[in-house]
Amino acid sequence: MKKKSLILAISVLLASCNHEAEQKEESSPRLAESKEMVTEMATISEDFKIEDIEVSSADIGDFPFLNLPTGLQAANVLEKNFDVCFFPLDGRMVPFEGRLYKANVVASQGEDYSKRYFEKSIEEYLLAIGAVKVFDGEITKEEYERYHRKDPNKGGAGDMGYWDQHIHFYVVRSKDNGNIYIQYTSNNAGGQLNILQETVFEQTITKITSDKIADDLAEKGKAILYINFDTEKSNLTAEGKEVVKEITAALHKDKSLKISIDGHTDNTGDATHNKRLSQDRAEAVVDHIILDGISQDRLIAKGFGSSNPLFSNDTEQNKAKNRRVELVKIN
């Protein structure tokens, strides 16, 4: 069976230039739910010890480590560089975190779907690479109602974990790729497949500082920032004002520095509106910098709307990258 490599690219951004829903403090119910999930993950080892599964030295290729058998294809694929997925342990859906692949499985054009063919193909391959079956059955309706509101990945690709689904759950402890969790289910019309490669979360959020801004301007001639504004307005939020203070500090340190403050949006909505909004926001940043004692003749405000994207606006992640403020050094 051939193995294919799926390359994932995803960025986590702090804020956006014209984000429809700016990040705010989570409500106490949401915080409680988050704490509950962390506690649940921390107690997994009481019921399931990954160390009890023998390490496999099989060459399993690249993520997601298996392709579909001939005559079947993936549809509505979901891929995340880091996320959570729930797997059944003794009938209880338990969250695991890592690199995630989820897909619906359907027949290729001109082929008929066979539940037996899909399940037998996956099972024999998993066993051949040293996977161990840890669950084979259904969860209760009560268990579904308990956990399903916590699952952020329901509603599209590879949905699994309903009380009327027969779930097959396997674990591979790969010598080269770490712990890998695979679950699948099927009926006579099609199947679902979930694969998670367990990884440790890496924090990528860092504080924007005047030194970093100055370094970027000196080395690249440009600094890309993500500044919070009120939704569909040019009013800076408290977080946005903190970022602007760092811009001002960089300008105070280098008295000769002049910059253009360029506002950018994604392509959502009316182009004329987006250009006007990006101009207003760039001017709002300039106004706050002037209030902090920087001369206006060192600053220019420009709004480009969606005309200069960094990435194609084909995903929400890429749109978030395009919603930005750029500081461009003026020579």
UniProtKB/TrEMBL annotation:
It comes from the Bacteria. It is found in: Cell outer membrane. Residues 216-331 form the OmpA-like domain. InterPro entries: Bact_OuterMem_StrucFunc, OMP_bac, OmpA-like, OmpA-like_sf. Keywords: Cell outer membrane, Membrane, Signal. Pfam families: OmpA. Residues 1-21 form the signal peptide. This is OmpA family protein. It comes from Sphingobacterium hotanense.
